[in-house]
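Case 68 in the screening queue. Each case pairs one protein sequence with one candidate compound; here the compound is zinc ion. For every case the pipeline is the same: read the inputs, emit a complex structure as tokens, and attach any notable structural observations.

Predict complex for case 68.
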Amino acid sequence: MKLCFCGSGLPRYELVDARGIFCTYVCDKCEKTKRSRYRPDIFTDSDYWADEPIEPEDTSGRFRYIAP
Ligand SMILES: [Zn+2]
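Case 68 output:
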């Protein structure tokens, strides 16, 4: 069993967000502290990425014109 990086001597476990994506390692002692460094909504709202602009189709369309 691996110990937490914070030096508490307690076993570490994975802190994951609402989508199950790994954030960092925590233990019972430092989970609250490390959790506070992240946006609180990523642990409660699984749609937190919806407002970020993602347009991969636009890019691939441009490459198609460059190809011979
Ligand atoms: Zn810790």
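Case 68 observations:
- The CA atoms of residues 56 and 62 lie 10 Å apart.
- The chain has two helices and two strands.
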